[in-house]
Design a protein that fits this description.
The chain is of the alpha+beta class. Helices cover 25% and strands 36% of the residues. It has three helices and ten strands; from the N terminus they run H-E-H-E-E-E-E-E-E-E-E-H-E. Strands 6, 7, 8, 9 and 10 form a five-stranded antiparallel sheet that branches. The longest helix is centred in the first third of the chain and has 15 residues.
Length: 135
């Protein structure tokens, strides 16, 4: 079966794993997913990820990050939302890049300079396709 939105699938797997309290989650690998996972590590939302060569495509094993709140573990990622999708692409110019939760979260954009956060895009003065928001 072909998948029409692999990024949404990755975000859903992460969201479900955090709600279930899993320490790691595996997603089919691609260059775009690898770049998104790299940004999530740099911004402190996940611990790390590693590439596993299981089959022809391979997979990414993402290790989730938790903190203790009131004696029970809570995911660092409180919310993760797909913005642009195959049926409706959402683009943002350099002047209207969305701020997530008043600057508390990050937006991830696909630009001509690679996959960047909203803050990095504002610093460079470029826009792009808004892939997702994480807070």
């Amino acid at each position: 079966m072909s998948m029409t939105d692999p990024i949404a699938d990755m975000l859903t797997r992460i969201r479900n794993a955090i709600q279930a309290g899993h320490r790691r989650v595996s997603v089919p690998a691609s260059n775009l997913k690898r770049d998104v996972a790299t940004l999530l590590v740099e911004q402190g939302y996940i611990q790390k990820f590693e590439e596993v060569d299981e089959n022809t495509q391979g997979s990414l094993r993402i290790f989730l990050k938790y903190y203790t709140k009131d004696g029970k573990p809570t995911g660092v990622i409180e919310g993760i939302k797909r913005v642009s999708r195959p049926g409706r692409r959402i683009f943002a110019g350099k002047d209207n890049i969305p701020k997530v939760c008043g600057g508390y979260g990050i937006s991830i954009l696909s630009t001509n300079q690679g996959i960047l956060t909203g803050h990095q895009c504002r610093m460079r003065g470029i826009g792009g396709e808004v892939l997702c928001e994480v807070w």
